[in-house]
Design a protein that fits this description.
single chain; 139 residues; alpha+beta; OB fold (Dihydrolipoamide Acetyltransferase, E2P); 2 domains; five-stranded mixed beta barrel; 29% helix; elongated
């Protein structure tokens, strides 16, 4: 009923579609292992089982909670309902401050203590680096 050329084109289109679907599936599957979503302190408090995999905890740095000893930084992340104590060894980002947003990546010791391996400070959409602010003459 259909000619040989039509059948070959149809087969070619089907092979391309299958290849695209398979490629997309493999890319998404490999990225799935590397994607880490952050959880709030309230979500951590409601966990039934503490797992030893790497997680991210996000929230605000509680006022008057930062204490720095040489290379160690201790602070509390809050979502204004629950809090979690965080310990971090290393230098913190410049935007890290009390009352500011933060995401800490690391391992959960229990529902109240978190050992961070990386600190990511968050900023709002109005953030301007200090160097740019100086260049524009704003304070």
């Amino acid at each position: 009923m259909y000619g040989r050329k039509v059948k070959l084109r149809f087969l070619f289109v089907i092979l391309i579609l299958i290849t695209l679907i398979l490629t997309t599936f493999l890319i998404l599957k490999s990225l799935e292992e590397n994607v880490i979503y952050f959880q709030s302190p309230s979500e951590i408090k409601s966990l039934t089982e503490i797992d030893k995999s790497k997680i991210r905890v996000g929230g605000m740095v509680k006022k008057n909670s930062i204490s720095m000893n040489s290379n160690e930084v201790n602070f509390i992340i809050t979502d204004f309902k629950n809090e979690i104590n965080v310990t971090y060894l290393g230098a913190v980002p410049n935007l890290f401050a009390e009352g500011k947003g933060v995401v800490a990546e690391g391992f959960l010791k229990d529902r109240n203590f978190f050992s961070a391996t990386k600190i990511l400070a968050k900023h709002d959409e109005n953030y301007m680096p200090p160097e740019v602010k100086e260049a524009l003459g704003e304070k």
